[in-house]
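Q: For a teaching session next week I want to show students how multiple molecules come together into a single three-dimensional assembly. I've collected the sequence lines for a complex. Could you give me the predicted C-alpha cells for the whole thing so I can convert them for display?
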Amino acid sequence: MPHPNPQARGLFISFEGIDGAGKSTHIAGLADAFRGQGRTVTLTREPGGTPLAEKLRALLLNDSMDPLTESLLVFAARRDHLMNVIEPALARGEVVLCDRFTDATFAYQGGGRGFDLDVLGTLERWVQATPAVGEGALRQPDLTVWFDLPPETAAARLADARAPDRFEAQPLDFFRHVAAGYAARAAADPTRFARIQADQARHLVWQQLTSTFVRRGWLSIMVPANSGPR
Ligand code: TYD
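A: Of course. Below is the structure for the complete assembly, covering every listed component.
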C-alpha cells in the first residue's frame, strides 16, 4: 500500500489547450496515478476553484462583456483561487492539478480577443505575486501540459459536444488565434511547457502524458497505457 509522504514537495501543474483538445479526461487519470503513488491531489480548475471564483466563472461563460472586464474578472477569480486553494495545497505538499491557468488568459483574452498583452502581463504580476513565493517572484506552474491540437480538429470534436458556452461558440478563426496564443506562451517559456500532440488516439495521448511525468521523476513507474481514462 502506498503511504502519503509528508516530506513531498508541492507540485503545481496546469493543463491547457483549445476547447475540444480532450484534456479533462486525462487530468482525472493523472489524479488517479498520483494518488496511486501515495500523493494527495487537489484537482481544480479555472476560472473557478473557490465559491467566489465559481460565481465569476458563471458570469464569464455566460454574460457578454468587454475584453478588459473579462480579463479583470478572470484575474480576480485567479487571485481568490491562488490564495485560498492553490497556495494552501502547495504548502501542505500536495499535487495541484489545475485545468487551465494564466496561459489560458494570454491565449483566449490575448490571442482570441486580441486584448493588450502588456495589460495581461501587469495583471499576471499583481495576481501571482503571492506571499508564499517571496519578494519579486511570481507563482507559476512547475509544469504546464499543453494539449496541442489543430483548431479544425477541435472544432469538429466540439460540434458533437453539449451546448457551447460563450467561448466554445466562437468561430474557427477565434480558435486559430487562441492556438497561436498558446504557441507564443510555450515559445517564451519552453522549460515550463510540455507539448502533447493531442490529435492522436486517446491511449497514445495518455502515453505521452505519463512519460512526461516519469521523465521528471514525478511518477515513478510507467503507468500502463490501458490504465488511463476511457
Ligand atoms: P473549460 O475549462 O474548457 O471548461 P469546460 O470543459 O467545462 O468547458 O472552460 C473554460 C472556458 O473559459 C474555456 O473556453 C476557456 C475560457 N477561459 C478564458 O477565456 N480565459 C481564462 O483565463 C481561462 C482560465 C479560461
